[in-house]
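Let's sit down with a protein and look at its sequence and fold side by side. Once you have written the record down, we can walk along the chain together.
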Amino acid sequence: MSAELSWVRSSYSGSGGDNCVEVAPLGHAVRVRDSKDVSRTPLTYGPVAWDAFLRLVRRLP
């Protein structure tokens, strides 16, 4: 299923290929994966968990 999704790399990911996080929308959920190891099953977050995560990240310096 991951191959069918449209993955987007985080703008905060390092340009050197390290710390690369990718996300893909999946209906009302969001899938998250490590771009260095796409063979692993992506994590899936529902809208409440994803919104809480984004609120927390946006408060970081």
